[in-house]
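Reopening this ticket.

The earlier resolution said the output was attached, but the attachment link was broken on my side. Pasting everything inline this time so it's all in one place.
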Amino acid sequence: MKPVSALGPKPDFDRLARPYRWLEYATFGPFLWRCRIRYLAEMRTCSSALVLGDGDGRFTAKLLRENSKIRVHAVDGSRGMIGTLENAAKANASRLTAEVADLRTWSPGHAASYDLIVSHFFLDCLTSGEVAGLALRVAAAATPGARWAVSDFVVPSTRFGSLVARPIVAALYAIFGWLTHLRVRSLPDHGEGLAAAGWSLQAEHVQLRGLLTSQLWLRPTISAPNPSELQ
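Inline output:
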């Protein structure tokens, strides 16, 4: 994993906090939202969730409404996004803990324990190495049988992927790089990072001919690798 000094400045998503929802609908309509809620039914029995980079918090708010017993720890690098998340979920504020932190280096507390992890359209802001490091750190705080829901963009290995999906993803990185100073310019291999940390892919659903994916990963009952042992 990269040392902190090599990570560079943290991207700034604050200016996108308020218009985020409308920018999303203007570009992809309802499809990103459908990815987020694809496995919502499987989350209704969970009791403790870690939500990573939820943006404006619409998913966190819905999760809290749909599961009246779950407690959510939401972590995001943008103070502005955390503000909109807290506002969206204010009806269930007693079950929400929000934290502003750089998820490239953030680690759960020693007493943290989650049976659900969620990262919707966030892992694409990291490099493959950063995803792998985060997956290891999160696995250490995940209960046996915990679920990890992932939604993200994909460039499929098809003609559509090379002619359509790849230019779309490149354009998105260029726009977000300009608006937020995000330095990442290509999709990470999040599947490899999660698998190396002991997570197992249980289900997947794709949309828009493979441009969008919704995945559900499972932490097996055996212990996950210790991050210190793999550094």
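Reporter confirms the inline version is readable. The CA atoms of residues 14 and 219 lie 33 Å apart. The domain at 4-229 is CATH 3.40.50.150 (Rossmann fold).
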